[in-house]
Amino acid sequence: MNKRGCKITLDDHIGLTLPDELISLAPILDNLVWSGCLLQGTFPKDIAECTGLVKLVLDHNCLSGSIPLGLTNCLSLAVLDLSHNRLVGAIPPELGQACTALENLALQHNMLTGSIPRELGNCPGLERLLLEKNHLTGRIPGELNSCVGLTTLALAYNHLEGPIPKLSSLSALAELRLDNNRLTGSIPADLVACSALDTLFLYAN
Question: Model pTM?
Answer without folding.
Answer: 0.90
